[in-house]
């Protein structure tokens, strides 16, 4: 039997296409609203203990625990909070005003055992569309759900699970690595959403190569633990050399229904270019594109793309 790689983490990336059912105003940052709304729908549809998790006798069988909270049985020592690692939601559409019939897209990425609960997520997101997103309750329908490898899985009321094609992070890293190494130019990371990460016990106000690489490695390790594979963090001998960077602070406001309060999540956004890219770091930085890095990833933070570009081009 082939020995398992630390990147042998199953995943599926699902693109949701929606249609607004009436004119609506929506949040600029939709990821937190989608996550919070999905969680609320999961609780409404599945909770049998009046949301009193500490008193519930069905904890191990709880659908919400397996889908929304996706808790790990064992955790790396540095994971001290309740990290939801089984899924990510991505939405980079910042438009706020929509007319009836307009649509927006978002991506749901499922990892490990979360993959088998697709229809639970789908039901919750469908119900969220009927209930409405954000404080203005923007109602929408799900027109289509598709995956990159398998094509259209959901269209209208029809579901075709034969097109539910599952890959691994190793597959993703291999494809992206081959493409990137066939290109010329300097390596760079472009952050599409804020990065919230500590370096030497302080929240970063600029990018540090060591922090970025180790952040990606920690995220891979967390997912390994999530699928029951207790792996060690690699010891890197060198890191990419930063040539230049542009960075600015970025914040996102969200409402927590659990705590009944508004909160602000903060991070940095921008681009960092490198003079070098050590082979031992490359696989982890490629994986980080898919799995995000840093804190608050379940709210969409830490999404970036790794690029090759000629000197002086943006």
TrEMBL record:
It comes from the Bacteria. InterPro entries: CRISPR-assoc_Cas6_C (IPR019267). Pfam families: CRISPR_Cas6. Gene3D superfamilies: 3.30.70.1900. Residues 190-304 form the CRISPR-associated protein Cas6 C-terminal domain. This is CRISPR system precrRNA processing endoribonuclease RAMP protein Cas6. The lineage of its organism: Bacteria, Bacillati, Bacillota, Clostridia, Lachnospirales.
